[in-house]
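The instructor's notes for this session suggest beginning with a concrete chain rather than abstract definitions. Hand out the sequence below and ask the class to guess, before any prediction is shown, which regions might be ordered.
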Amino acid sequence: MIDIGFGPQVCGDLTAAAGREWLVTDGRGGYAMGTVAGLRTRRYHGLLVVAGATPASRKVGLVGLDPALTWPSGAQVRLGAHEWSSGDVDPRGFELLERFELVDGLPRWRWRIGDVVVERELAMTYGRSCVAVVHRLVSGGPVRLDLAAVCTWRDAHGERRADGPTPRMEQADGGAVVEGAFRISGPDWHPEGQWWLGVHHREEAARGLNPDEDLWYAGRFAGMLERPGDTVSVLAWADDLAQEPPPATEVVAAARRRNRAVVAAAHPADAVDATLALAADAFVVRTAAGPDVVAGYPWFGAWSRDTMTAYEGLFLATNRFDEGRELLRSYAATLSEGMLANTADTGRVEYNTVDAALWFLHAVDRHVTLADDADLGAELLPALRGIVDAHLAGTRYGIAVDPADGLITQGGPPDVALTWMDARVYGVPVTPRTGKPVEVNALWVNGLAGLVELAQRAGEDAGDLIRLHERARTAFRARFPAPAGWLYDVVDAPAPAYPLGGAAHHDDDLLRPNQLLAWSLPYAPMEPDEPMLRRLLAGLFTPLGPRSLSPDSPGFAGRHRGGPAERDGGYHQGTVWPWLIGPLVDAHRRAKLPVDNLLVGLEGHLVDFGIGSVSETADGLAPHAATGCPFQAWSVAELLRARRSR
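After discussion, reveal the predicted structure:
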């Protein structure tokens, strides 16, 4: 893997160190997450964040373990870091960091105070909501290490305050049980029980959300570090509180072994591939229903569109064929009226995308092709044909095949956004894209061609599919080329969505990246056009991937910043989306254009924001600072897939 580490100049600079985040996951949707500085900048940061019935229904438990060193003379140095609603940052332990690094994907901090050097390592138990934090004396001593256990128990999206109920604590061997939900255990436990008022989260303030909360100082652990090699460790876990985990040092060692095995199984071509393979592992989780994909940390759960878009990169490019097969089967079971269940993040299963089922067709085809898994293709073929039949008959939200040309059109009520550009502000879609979106129909043509291959493999008559495919491809080639020199983003959009003097329909020629799928998919409807691709590159490309709208277009938003309405308003109006690097690279390869220089910025980004991973979005204007989730599944998957397809 690439060497990811920072010295005193980055660690001691609060802006630089607090702007770089690390993530460790438990394979169930739970995680530990924070910053290089040790400063919590988000309400979502914590050492034990527990997944519930779904990966998105998370609770924050153990918030932090604040270290303090005490010498025999009585002198004390605090190594933690907190920002308060007053604006003060106290303590400032990051100023004593001489090194932060990821070792086999696990974070390690190294503080130096004179001749005393102390390291902290952290890991989670895979498949269990459990975190282990190990402190080791590297040099100097003796010193006493105290660890203040800072806790809460609340929804990850919210806050908890001192004017509410006091957290319920019960004594347990070596520590305490908090709210009956999680247990903390370590040496020489001393209960305290005190509110810390006005803890400030600067990233929540920047997002226009409530930035402050109160935290419960539950108590402290303590242990002597007499000589180099001595350790003081703490465990925290949820679920079966009576079942104690292995010793913390064993949890760390086991996590390191597993991470090495994940990388080795992916057969990486180089250090960047290895880093991305491990990053991909964070998103693949196992729930009660089987394997699934977390779309992004820290706030997303499972979204079928994201899962199917990321499928090839997460599963096939990392040789996780068995898990992938199981996942595709389980998602097939959610099909209803030709639509794939999108997400349960809102508390109920939703069918509200025009493209998730089409990405599913693509994912199954890629699995069968790359894994040589004809049996799965034959097994899922009836379900896949059902998708086509439902679209021919018409399904929810006015999604249907237009009998006039064989292309997919979508309508629905005015408060619904069905494509991946699905942001809404005050219930109104920013980019409704009603009509026939270009990428939806590229996926439709691609899916029909893939289905022809699957049917023929299974020995079935594919004549009806061949005719559907030919008709849709012919119509696509006739309808989408625009006089501007690229493809229309939407054709046959009804006038209410694009009010132009009462015209019945409108073809939208704003320069957007959705058209890349028309050249990039395995059975893409268009042949690569070098001049057209060069126009797209000139208008959309940034070091972190394509913009969602060209800067010279009306409505362009160059910064993805501000409160929820401002951010959502610019989400697909110029914001950069790294996942689009995959289609961009594929289109360039098909046109026999060089691609290696397209990946340089994203490879450098691996140490800039969510370290070892790729962000959800970035600003459309230079310097293209990362925004959104620091760790995003389809961003990682598409960069990995694009690199491994070379």
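Then share the key points. The mean pLDDT is 96. The longest helix spans residues 374-393.
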